[in-house]
Write a structure and sequence with these properties.
It contains 11 helices and 12 strands. By secondary structure, the protein is of the alpha/beta class. The strands form 2 sheets. It has a 7-stranded parallel beta sheet with strand order 8-7-6-9-10-11-12. Strands 2-1-3-4-5 form a 5-stranded parallel beta sheet.
Length: 331
């Protein structure tokens, strides 16, 4: 019987994987550990591996996987920036992802986060907890209908985010290297990111992480923002220079930020740090601010998305074993 091991597995994934295994007559087993040079030895006797990798994979693992007879890594997410695709191909390792598991989940979360910032819910909650029930300018909100929203990256998630915002009656502008013709019905495309953000009250990014867009949102780009804009990142942390973002918040250039991803998150997410000090002053500051909503890469986390991620990854792993490839391979 085919044997597949899932690394970085959570409790909510196990039943889905077991049901899939029974249906496909495959033996699956689990490890809550991530795939490392040490844990890769657990794959002796296995045919395939699926991971929920967040940090960069050690390049030496690909050679060891090849030696163990493993032909693929099935990532249970859309992001692939944690893999060295060239090194994987060099050792005949197919990397697959799950490119579209539930774009609605992330789009809805982006809009929810924007609404929280615009309606000042964090500050209102803080005041209420202190029994300060006054109406005052610091908690006065704006109407989404009166705002301009910039969607940076108009793939599946970006388009759905734009559609939801447009239902409020807001003006939607956007930027993408490859504008979508259908999306032009509700997105006014701009020629550059700078032009898109310059008049926007809300900027929401929905781009994959690449070598070319590392720290794309830096001090120079934040300076192009409209004063008092809010910033939403449910994409990838590496796209944002977090120090530059904090400086923009401190200067008042940006009035608030919702960050579901953070460039140095792999040390902390998804882990329990309740009784452990966080040795990252930038993250500590983000967590302490009332003008920042920080969440642990949770935008995707719905029942629909989790099922699609687990089943999509396992389908890809099984396809590689049976046919030598899969439809979601990325190298």
């Amino acid at each position: 019987m085919i044997k597949i091991k899932l690394f970085g597995v959570r409790e909510d994934e196990k039943k889905i994987a077991r049901d899939w295994a029974k249906q496909n007559q495959v033996d699956v087993s689990f490890s809550e550990e991530i795939l490392t040079l040490e844990t890769v030895e657990q794959l002796k006797g296995y045919d395939a591996v699926s991971t929920q990798q967040t940090g960069r994979l050690d390049d030496r693992i690909y050679e060891r996987l090849h030696e163990l007879g493993i032909k693929q890594i099935a990532q249970r997410s859309a992001g692939i920036d944690m893999y060295n695709l060239e090194k994987a191909s060099e050792h005949q390792i197919i990397i697959s992802n799950v490119p579209s598991y539930s774009p609605n989940s992330i789009a809805e979360y982006a809009v929810t986060s924007a609404l929280q910032l615009i309606r000042k819910t964090q500050l209102i909650e803080k005041n209420v907890n202190e029994q300060d029930f006054r109406w005052k300018p610091t908690i006065m909100a704006k109407e989404i209908k009166s705002l301009e929203i910039a969607i940076i990256g108009t793939g599946r998630i970006g388009q759905i985010t734009a559609q939801i915002f447009s239902a409020f009656g807001a003006k939607i502008v956007g930027y993408d290297l490859y504008p979508n013709e259908d999306a032009k019905h509700y997105i006014e495309y701009k020629k550059s990111i700078e032009e898109a953000v310059s008049g926007a009250d809300i900027v929401s990014i929905h781009m994959p992480a690449t070598e070319d867009n590392n720290h794309l949102f830096n001090e120079s780009l934040f300076n192009q923002f409209k004063d008092d804009a809010v910033f939403i990142n449910t994409a990838r942390g590496s796209i944002v220079d977090t120090k530059a973002l904090i400086n923009a918040l401190n200067s008042g250039k940006i009035s608030g930020a919702a960050l579901d991803t953070y460039e140095n998150e792999s040390t902390y997410i998804p882990k329990d740090f309740r009784n452990t000090d966080i040795d990252d002053p930038i993250l500590v500051e983000l967590l302490s601010r009332t003008d920042v909503i920080f969440t642990p890469h949770i935008a995707f986390y719905t029942g629909t998305a989790v099922r699609n991620l687990v089943e999509g990854a396992l389908d890809a792993a099984l396809s590689v074993l049976k046919t030598g490839s899969c439809m979601t391979r990325v190298n």
